Structure formats: C-alpha cells, structure tokens
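G., the chain you wanted modeled:
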Amino acid sequence: MASFSQFGSDLYTGKRSYDIIGRRKTWYLIALIMIVISLATPWLRGGYQLGIEFTGGSEFTLSDVKNTDQSIATDTVERVVSDEIPRVSQLGTHGIRVQTGQLTDRQTTEVQDALAEAYDVPESQVAATFIGATWGADVLAQAIRGLVIFLALAAVFMTLYFRTWKMSLSAMAALVHDLLITAGVYGIVGLEVTPAAVIGFLTILGYSLYDTVVVFDKVRENTAQESIRTFKQSVNLAVNQTLVRSINTSVVALLPVAAILFIGSYVLGAGTLRDISLALFIGIIVGTYSTIFIASPMYAQLRENEPKIKQADAKKIQAAEKRQREVDADADADAKATA
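Predicted structure as tokens:
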C-alpha cells in the first residue's frame, strides 16, 4: 500500500510520468479497433436482439417448476404455434421465462395450458402477459430520445462549465466511444437490449462524464498556470496526477457491480439485475479508458495548434534548450577542471 501511495505521489509531483498525450495515436488506434469490432460483430450476427419491451410480443412466466430444462418450453411452443421460435431463459432456480412474438388470445391460452402440462404445474403458476408492438416502439423511441437529450445537455454543460467547446467536443467523443463499445458487447454476446440495459447505458455515461470533468478540472488548472511546461506537457501532467484517482475510483465502483452481476446471472437467473449490471461493468471499464486515453489527448490535440499556444510553447522550448545548453556547458567545464 505504501509503495502504491508513493507511486501516486511520484505521478502527482511529476517525478514519474507516462507519456499518455504523446502516444495518442496508439490510444486512438486501440479505440478504433474496439469500435469497429463493436459495430461489425452485431451486424454480422444479424443486428441487436431487442427485448420484448421494445419489439412487443407475448411472455409466459412459470414459477416453482421441478424441471428447468429449457428445451421442454421450446418444443411445447413450437408444437402449439409451429411458425414461432420462442426465446427461453431460466429465472432463478425454479423459474422459466418464455417469450414469443405476438399471439392471438386463443394461441396464448393454448400455449399457457401446454406449458403447464409440460412442466407439470397448475395453470395458476403460468403467468401470461402481452406487450403491444406500438407500446414497444414508443418505449424504443423514448429511449433514443432520452439518450440524445442527455448528450445534448452534457455538451452544453461542458461548454459552459469549462468555457471552451473543445473540452466539450473531447468529452462527447469519449461518451460516444463508451456507448458504442458497451452496446457492442450486448450485440457480440447476443444478450437482449432491455429498458434496464438502456438505463445502464445512461448511468455509465454519467459516470464517464463525471470522471472526465475531474480530469479536465486538473487540466484547466495546470494549463492556466505559468510554468516551464508546454501545453501538451501540462495536459499530460494533469492526466498523470489524476491517474491513480481514476483507477481507485473505477476499482471501488467495479467491486459492487461485479457482485450484482454475479448474483443477477448465476443466482437469480437472467433478468433486470444482469442487464443493468453488465452495462455498468463494461461501461465503467471503458469509461475510465476513454477519460484517460481519448478525451484528454483529443483536447490537447485540438488546442496545441492554436496560434497563442504555439507561440507560448515555442518560447518554452527555446528556454528549455537554452537551459540544457547551459547545463551541458557547466558539465563540460567541470569535466575539464577535474581532468
């Protein structure tokens, strides 16, 4: 623990430093590869699998079943409705959930009776619900609208708070990066995108934005001060100074989310807990990466070619070279004197 504290102290004082800003092309390439995979893989698999809340359909929930074999439900539904391919999942240790397309009232009753008979449970333990396609489309439209409004408000907030649109643009690029990769994971592993998952997406965007604001606050503080460092060096110092804090915050946030993800996936079965916790788990990791390796390097790149900054950096580089020449000259003089 002491060594890690010393590590953080060395990063803060500049005694130890990682050239994060200078290697931005590497970070951009990694991000680009991850985004391409996140977009291409779901497309190759036929697109995202939207939950029944978005597409509409019928859902049957069986409780207190002795045999949780999911193939029984699949065979039963296909026997009653031959052209229907159901989605079956286990709920907890004694529950089964069956989702289908929109069924008629008669088909719903037949499937409900057949499932009760197949799993040897009373009909009262087979709950049937119906979600209309129009309602599902409205939910999807509201989810997309909420996401767009969130990004727009976040962009305005960043611009007003930091008084520069370039910080806002960098932060928005990081948020889009987080969203694409987190959503891509759902498409890659074939999980349903449910309202709970969408809530998770919005939550991790807020987390990522908070982390970016903290780092940018330090960036603004460093670049506003008079120092011998160039603009890019000041930004790099700010990222290094907040690096340990970002790692610690992410680890602390990941631990309870990982516990919820485990409980939701393996103890209680597929459901809301798993959907939202997976989005949070992936999003926190990706959000930490984007804050450090996307937002900050992009901001430095957007600002470093401004005439005022270029002029100031040129003077600082000349002063640094002059100091280095003086140091070298003193070293040569000492060497000659010793000889």
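The CA atoms of residues 178 and 289 lie 9 Å apart.

Shout if anything looks off.
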